[in-house]
Structure formats: structure tokens, C-alpha cells
Sequence to fold (118 residues):
Amino acid sequence: MSIVAGLRRLPGDDARTRELEAVRAAHEVKSGTEKVAHGNASLSQRTEEQASSLEETASSTEEMTSTVKQNADGAKLIEQSGATLTEIVGAVKKVADIVAEIAAASLEQSAGIEQVDK
Fold:
């Protein structure tokens, strides 16, 4: 037996009042349930949007991390190139010094030959 049917068995106005109160209470429960369901749907939508946003952020972070690593690797290569160039400059200076010594020796040798020829 339903609550409303049970309330109808009460005598007179008292039964009708209780029936109206039960109907109002049921309507309020239904309205509250609908509000909660709407709130849950809204929260679910916002949660999905935030999850999507977090996935995008994670992807961007991975891309930035990769770019930073590539830049660091590039910086290491530049540093190594700089060291190699420094070594090359040192070797070129040594060659220039040797060429200067050879030129000086050639001049001495030429001067010695001229003296012998005189």
C-alpha cells in the first residue's frame, strides 16, 4: 500500500493535508534530485575539460623537455667545437712559428752562401 493511499484513510481534512504535504515533499525530493543530477553532470563536464587541459599541458611539457634536451645537446656540441677550434688555432700558431724559423734559417743560409761566394 502506498503512502498516499494510507494517508487517504485518515479522516477528513487531516488526511487531505497530509496527502498534500506528502505530494509537496515528493516534489521537493524530485526537484532536489534533479538539481543534484544537474550539478553532477556539470561537475563531470568540468572534470573532463580539466582532464583534457592537463593532457595538453603534459604533452606541451614533454615537448619543452625534448627541446631543452636538444638545446643542451647543441650547447655541448658548440662547446666541443670551441675546444676543437682552440686546438686548431694552437696548431696553426705552431706551424706559423715553424715557418718563421725556416724563413729565418733560410735567410741565415743565404747570408752564409753570399759570404762564401765573395
